[in-house]
Write a structure and sequence with these properties.
The chain is an alpha/beta fold. About 55% of the residues lie in helices and about 10% in strands. The chain has two domains: about 5-80, Methionine synthase domain (Methyltransferase, Methionine Synthase (B12-binding Domains), Chain A, domain 1, Orthogonal Bundle); about 90-210, Cobalamin-binding domain (Rossmann fold), CATH 3.40.50. The protein has nine helices and five strands. A five-stranded parallel β-sheet has the order 2-1-3-4-5, sandwiched between helices. It starts with a helix and ends in a 5-residue tail after the last helix. The relative contact order is 0.11. Bound molecules: CO-5-methoxybenzimidazolylcobamide. CO-5-methoxybenzimidazolylcobamide binds next to helix 3, helix 4, helix 5, strand 3 and strand 4.
Length: about 210
């Protein structure tokens, strides 16, 4: 089965087709993580390019995002493993002013399937909420997601607020998302790690916590 049609269905926001193609791919035994990384994410990347060229507008981008989310919902149970949350607590959220949550949700899914407990603060999260949640849940790591370049000041503010707080000495901070670079995250903001994608995020968190990868 040619799964390029799945990418095309995401680009065009054809939710019914995309869901049927995902179901077919599952039946054919395709690896769920590969379906996401090789066919769904590239579809949304193309949507982003078309948006940038003003070939499409926010409503179309929203329809494609919902199409992708419907497919991920089908794949989730196949990725999530029933492991005991023994590896530590990760507080995760998208920074203030940013409503993008698809990437963050993928990071959450992979972390949970790797045995972490994840406290998801959602989107548009003010810096103090990260600090309070880290304290309340005795988190080992706080993860920030940021897709908009206008979110850079909030990434910096949040990292600095956590570092300056009573939990700052204990909690490690990792940041990821299309708007960020390792130089900005680790250099300017002073976070402990930058992650380029969800799998890299899980590996870097394990390294920060000295858990064998
Ligand atoms: Co928006 N948007 N959007 N958008 N959107 C981008 C990000 C953009 C790059 C599109 C473009 O112009 N090419 C652009 C940002 C430009 C910039 O700042 N430089 C943009 C814009 C401008 C906007 C609006 C301002 C548009 C407007 O209103 N005029 C607006 C902002 C709203 C807001 O947030 N305040 C907006 C709105 C939206 C929708 C609501 C329509 C929708 C989001 C729906 C949702 O998330 N529920 C949307 C979408 C879908 C996109 C694109 C097309 C796709 C994003 C996505 O989900 N990608 C995006 C273009 C693009 O990224 N190519 C775009 C798939 C996802 C799996 O990837 O999120 O990058 P990503 O996550 C990856 C990695 O980055 C990493 O791992 C993930 C998986 O491997 N990662 C982490 C992410 N977080 C991590 C955290 C970690 C570790 C790794 O550790 C904690």
């Amino acid at each position: 089965m040619n799964l390029d049609a799945l990418t095309e269905a995401v680009v065009k926001g054809k939710r019914k087709d995309a869901v049927e193609l995902t179901q077919q791919a599952i039946r054919d035994g395709h690896d769920p993580e590969k379906i996401i990384n090789t066919y769904l994410i590239p579809g949304l990347n193309r949507v982003g390019e078309r948006f940038q060229k003003r070939e499409i507008f926010v409503p179309e981008m929203m329809i494609s995002a919902k199409t992708m989310q419907a497919c991920v919902e089908l794949l989730k149970p196949l990725i999530a493993k029933d492991t005991a949350p023994a590896l530590g607590v990760i507080v995760i959220g998208t920074v203030f002013g940013d409503l993008h949550d698809i990437g963050k949700n993928l990071v959450k899914l992979l972390l949970e399937s790797s045995g972490f407990k994840v406290v998801d603060l959602g989107e548009n999260v003010p810096s103090q909420k990260f600090v309070e949640a880290a304290r309340l849940h005795d988190a080992s790591v706080v993860g920030l997601s940021s897709l908009l370049t206008t979110g850079d000041p909030y990434v910096e503010e949040t990292v600095k607020a956590i570092k300056a707080s009573d939990v700052g000495a204990k909690v490690r901070i990792i940041c990821g998302g299309a708007a960020l670079t390792p130089k900005f995250v680790e250099g300017q903001c002073g976070a402990d790690a930058y992650a380029k994608d969800a799998a890299d995020g899980v590996n870097k968190i394990k390294k920060l916590l000295e858990i064998a990868v």
